[in-house]
Design a protein that fits this description.
Blueprint (H helix, E strand, L loop, with lengths): L3 H4 L4 E7 L5 H14 L4 E5 L1 E3 L11 H7 L4 H4 L8 E3 L5 H7 L6 H15 L3 E5 L14 H8 L3 E6 L2 H16 L4 E7 L13 H18 L6 E4 L7 H19 L8 H12 L16 E5 L2 E4 L4 E4 L2 H4 L8 H13 L11 H13 L4 E7 L2 H18 L7 E5 L8 H5 L19 E3 L16 H10 L3 E6 L3 E2 L5 E2 L2 H14 L2 E5 L23 E4 L11 E6 H7 L16 H16 L2 H16 L8 E7 L2 E6 L5 H10 L2 E2 L6 E4 L7 H16 L5
Pyridoxal-5'-phosphate binds next to helix 15.
Length: 690
């Protein structure tokens, strides 16, 4: 079986001190005692201990946990626990680890924690972090990233002084931005509460701070409990009993897992079934759905805590994985400044910067960018541009488009008219869709020598219909949703020359293929081809928000706008600043990472994992290009059975028709891609697809 150990997720919570020396360890130990008093088997674990030479040291915090449970024989059974990592230097974990020629990272910490829970199996794990949320564990990651990766609630421990409140409120913002739940707040009385406020009535001051913080929590719609904790002069059994009594309400809330019902996912499905419509779905026989609670990296976490390895990048989009900190930072930063403003008569930095950035990575003669809110609309925009271009030239009779079969360009009416006429919805919308001109799909495979006769039909169609064709539209190199077909780059070069001769524009739809997926930044870069119009979308924002762009040459723009004309399009949410800011961050991130190497490595793993499928009896073809791996079967597959099987296997793969295909996020590890491929092989050899 695959990955059962880490599919279930951890149960427990983090204890994070906002500020140092606030009594985090004492609160953790008292919480531990409170949980045991409630009959909840719990175990506390210090994630990283610094300033202690070895894990057994009596100077470590671990022995404090033990003293809090000293008179509880039932708790002794699971004691003691040693810190997960221990470093001698009394400094931040990243420094302390470096001093010992080692390093920490989120991935390894999480794996170690999962192993720990699998081995020791307490009902609840109290994870004491190192200091506050933003304590660094290496140059890129901090404690908050560990918490976000595990998705556990966080109990904040802070000092009951003005600076402590400030710390606490900033920590609340950080937790909210990371999508984490506040488990509660323990407000600890400092050693000298009246320091800096001579003559103040201390009990009033402490109570007022707590009241203020409760009010702020209420304003944020947060119902987590806040408990004030006195400072104990001596930590004897009576003190532990008193502290744990105070913390009982927090322990109560945490030991009954979430205030949410256990069957939350089930309830969501019931509500969904009566209110929501899903893509390509019936409301009479609604599709099977998996309720998702959150995402992280290349993982999709279901409502019941199961984790799926993502093999789809949410339909080509999430190339950097989910919740990437750089994209999230761009989103939060822009949300604070300006989430949206109309684009008619106004402009803004995010749109201009993104247009410049896009033109910088597109072929050199692209000179203008028009922003749209989805891929289909970007295709409509491209088609309208081509029509207005021809009108500008006085070629009013050019009102049709030539396109290969097997294409997919979106679900709006213009886009649908150029989708594959059989797989698309042409028979359903007969008489309504514009009648375009179709030619056979590029028949020459990507990985075979080029066959020049594959261009014959394009040549014939352009000869027959040349005068009425405004543009040829197609997906470069990879036909995506229409069949996951990879064709030879020379076809594209030849087709561009034919378009040029016929006076038809060339529109390349890079919505699926753009931003590195095929191993080139844009798939058209496999060929020497100069399109007139290019559409991008999907991975443009790294999968965070909906945004698409249609770029064109100066010549197209000039003719669209000839004779005082304007381009007749303007979506309400055009150039949405949030989406533009995230898209710019995504392109910057691509620029900073060696995405070519990552896509090459995806290609190696996909070939290694999927090629063995080629010998299976029901398999017609296996093909891999860049980060796309396809197994084509002889018969249409049983999608319902396969979807269920893959979720059981801990992977997210959505086959359709005769295609089982993978396009994992670029950040996926070789091991995870191995799991994805293994699940595909298993499904095919066990006959699940039949
Ligand atoms: C997905 C896709 C579209 C449509 O994009 P939406 O954002 O879904 O409207 C258009 N063209 C291609 C090649 C696509 O893959």
């Amino acid at each position: 079986m695959l990955r059962n150990a880490d599919q279930a997720g951890l149960r427990g919570f983090f204890v994070a001190g906002s500020g140092t020396d606030v009594g985090k360890t004492v609160v953790t130990a008292a919480m531990l005692r409170a949980l045991w008093r409630l009959g909840t088997p719990a175990q506390a674990l210090k994630v990283v201990q610094t300033g202690v030479r070895d894990v057994q040291s009596p100077l470590g915090d671990t022995h404090v946990y033990a003293t809090a449970l000293e008179d509880m024989p039932q708790a002794k059974a699971v004691q003691p626990t040693q810190p997960l990592y221990c470093f001698a230097l009394p400094a931040s974990p990243h420094l302390a680890a470096a001093q010992e020629q080692t390093s920490l990272c989120v991935e390894h910490l999480c794996a170690a924690l999962r192993r720990f829970q699998a081995e020791s199996a307490p009902a609840l794990l109290l994870l004491e972090g190192a200091g506050g949320l933003h304590v660094p564990i290496n140059a890129q990651e901090d404690m908050l990233d560990v918490m976000a990766a595990l998705g556990l609630p966080v109990l904040l421990v802070g000092s009951n002084v003005l600076g402590g409140l400030n710390h606490m409120l900033l920590s609340l913002d950080a937790l909210r931005d990371a999508g984490l739940r506040l488990a509660g707040i323990a407000l600890v009385t400092p050693a000298d509460p009246s320091a800096g406020c001579p003559g103040v009535d201390v009990p009033t001051l402490l109570a007022d701070n707590a009241a203020f913080l409760r009010q702020r929590l209420a304003q944020r719609g947060c119902d987590a409990a806040l408990v004030t904790v006195p400072r104990m002069p001596c930590l004897d059994l009576a003190a532990w009993e008193r502290l744990s009594s105070l913390l009982l309400p927090l322990a109560q809330a945490l030991s009954t897992p979430c205030a949410e019902p256990r069957n939350k996912g089930e309830l969501l499905l019931q509500r969904d079934a009566v209110a929501v419509w899903h893509p390509y779905a019936s409301t009479v026989t609604p599709p099977a759905l998996a309720p998702v609670a959150r995402t992280q990296g290349n993982r999709i976490v279901l409502a019941d805590g199961r984790e799926l390895i993502d093999g789809m990048s949410s339909w080509w989009a999430a190339i950097h994985g989910y919740n990437h900190p750089q994209l999230m930072a761009a989103l939060h930063g822009q949300a604070g400044r300006m989430p949206h403003v109309m684009f008619g008569g106004l402009t803004h930095e995010p749109a201009v910067a993104l247009a410049e950035r896009l033109l910088h990575c597109l072929p050199a003669d692209m000179e203008r960018v028009f922003f749209a809110d989805s891929g289909s609309v970007a295709v409509e925009v491209a088609m309208k541009m081509a029509l207005q271009y021809q009108i500008g030239l006085g070629e009013r009779q050019r009102v049709r488009f030539l396109t290969p079969t097997g294409g997919y360009h979106g679900d709006t009416f213009g886009a649908m008219s150029v989708c594959d006429p059989v797989n698309g919805m042409h028979s359903l919308f007969k008489g309504i869709l514009a009648q375009q001109v179709f030619m056979e799909r590029p028949s020459c495979r990507f990985d075979r020598p080029f066959d020049p006769t594959s261009l014959d039909e394009a040549r014939r169609k352009l000869q027959a219909h040349g005068q009425e064709i405004a543009a040829v539209i197609l997906e470069p190199i990879v036909q995506g949703a229409g069949g996951m077909w990879f064709y030879h780059p020379d076809y594209l070069t030849g087709l561009a020359a034919l378009c040029h001769e016929a006076g038809a524009l060339l529109i390349l739809d890079e919505i699926a293929t753009g931003f590195g997926r095929t191993g080139k930044m844009f798939a058209m870069q496999w060929a020497k081809v100069k399109p007139d119009i290019v559409c991008c979308g999907k991975a443009l924002t790294g999968g965070v928000l909906t945004l698409a762009a249609t770029a064109c040459t100066a010549e197209v723009a000039a003719n669209v706008c000839a004779h005082g004309q304007v381009f007749m399009h303007g979506p309400t949410f055009m150039a949405n600043p949030l989406a533009c800011a995230v898209a710019k961050a995504s392109l910057d991130l691509l620029g900073e990472t060696d995405w070519q190497e990552r896509v090459r490595s995806l290609e190696r793993c996909l070939k290694h994992g999927l090629n063995p499928c080629a010998t299976l009896p029901d398999v017609a073809d296996v093909r891999v290009l860049g980060g796309i791996g396809v197994v084509e079967t002889v018969q249409p597959v049983n999608t319902t059975a396969l979807h269920r099987f893959f979720v059981e296997q801990g992977v997210w793969i959505r086959p359709f028709n005769r295609l089982i295909y993978l396009m994992p996020p670029y950040i996926s590890s070789a091991e995870d891609v191995g799991h994805l491929c293994h699940a595909v092989r298993l499904a095919l050899s066990a006959g699940i697809h039949c």
